[in-house]
Amino acid sequence: MKPEDEASREACETIARELADRGVDVLVDDRKERPGVKFKDADLIGIPVRVTIGPKTLEKGGAEVKGRREDGFGETIDVSAVSQKIVAKLTDS
To answer: Is 1 within a domain?
Structure first.
């Protein structure tokens, strides 16, 4: 998430709240670091599903959802369906 981007912050807060309501632990990385640094740190601490939110992903229609063990790029999902997709990925693991 780009903390300085209002739309990204709102989408992040919405998704985090929906996931917390479903009993999923959420870590929001709003540090002012490059995405690669954040992705590497998420892998190092074992985050099973990563959600990338920013102006580019929002322009494409939502947020990028990628499982830790998946290759390539994640799947762009509408913000309203992200929490459901994450719960499905977590229960499939």
So the answer is: no
pLDDT digits (tens, 9 = 90+) for 37-63: 999 999 999 999 999 999 999 999 899
Sign for the pseudo-dihedral over CA of 35, 47, 86, 67: positive
d(CA 27, CA 47) in angstroms, rounded, equals: 9
- Reported as type and span, the H/E element at residue 87 is helix 82-92
Enclosing domain of residue 77: 6-92
Q: How many residues does the chain have?
A: 93
Average confidence score pLDDT of the chain:
92
DSSP output for 20-75: HHTT--------SS-HHHHHHHHHHHT-SEEEE-SHHHHHTTSEEEEETT--S--E
